[in-house]
Amino acid sequence: MLRRVVRDDVPLAPVHAAVHARLVAIAPGRADTTLPAPSADPDAALWLLGDFASGLAVTGTLDPGQRITTLRLTLHVLSREIEGDTLHAAGCLDERLPDVALSTAVITDGAGRTIARAHGRNAVLTDEVAAGYGTEVPSWASSPLTVAGMVRDGGAPSDQAVNTAAVVQGGALASVPARALAGVLDGPADEASAAFLRPVPADGRTVHAEAELEHGGRRLRSGRALLRDDRDRVVLSVSGLRYG
Questions:
Q1: Chain segment 192-202, per-residue pLDDT in tens
Q2: Phi and psi, residue 90, nearest 5°
Q3: Which of 8, 39, 179, 199 is deepest in the core (most CB within 10 A)?
Q4: What number of other Cβ atoms are within 10 A of residue 36's Cβ?
Q5: DSSP run (H or E) holding 139
């Protein structure tokens, strides 16, 4: 399926169709992807692209009937000054065990500068969900949407934000509490780690974020943000640091 996505230049899932996230090359343990460079809110794009590329590096090693789900994603941002119109992310498999895999995505801009690194921990699952992969091929949006436009604090995620498992893509979802965390850190985190606790379907139910400052030093600030569903259950937590 992944080779067909590359060969025919088709999106892998609705979320990728919406934001124009492309898989441009795939090999066992490696994936190369692109995303239009954002004009604003680069962190949301970095979360989505980091999850996309790091996850695909694992997906390319799976057997038929298997899939992955993100357990934790850590994003290290080096620069928010992006040159060029396109972000590139190279995903690489670091370790693979029967039920868990570790991978890394290096995100660069059009000038070849490293903008961010993402590190993913994924569970490897075998279930009926994987059997349905590739049965439907979405169409590219006429123009790319923004991550923030699809997943908002206090709103219901768009059905365009879902991945191949028909739930909101992890990176897009993590951008919501990450944005709330930026509010208490006086700016976006330079390093943040998201733990995914429950899948979130795009079924009209809302999500909301809350954040707290844990340490407010002059040179280092740390905080934590939670994303809750409409039943007030925690579905995702993000902890982060901001330097300087």
A1: 999 999 999 99
A2: -105, 115
A3: 179
A4: 16
A5: none
Beta strands 220-229 and 207-216, pairing class: antiparallel
SS3 173: helix
- Written as six digits, the tokens of 187 are 């700016």
The CA distance from 83 to 104, in Å, is 22
Query: Amino acid identity of 177?
Result: P
Only one residue has tokens 């590096």, namely 57
Note the Cα 26 to chain centre separation in Å: 18
Task: Indicate the angle between helix axes 170-184 and 42-59, nearest 10 degrees.
Answer: 140
CA pair distance 1, 207, nearest whole angstrom: 32
User: How many angstroms separate the CA atoms of 69 and 63, rounded?
Assistant: 15
> From CA 107, how far away is CA 118, in angstroms rounded?
8
Element (H, E) at 109: none
Instruction: Please give the structure tokens belonging to residue 100.
Output: 């868990």
Domains and CATH numbers, the chain: 2-243 (2.40.160.210)
The helix or strand, by DSSP H or E, that contains position 239, with its residue range, turns out to be: strand 234-243
Residues 214-232 have pLDDT tens digits of 999 999 999 999 999 999 9
Contact 192, 239 (CB under 8 A): yes
Residue 149 has pLDDT above 80, yes or no: yes
Closest CA relative to residue 121, chosen from 181, 193, 176, 218: 193
Contacts of 129 (CB under 8 A, 6+ apart): 67, 165, 166
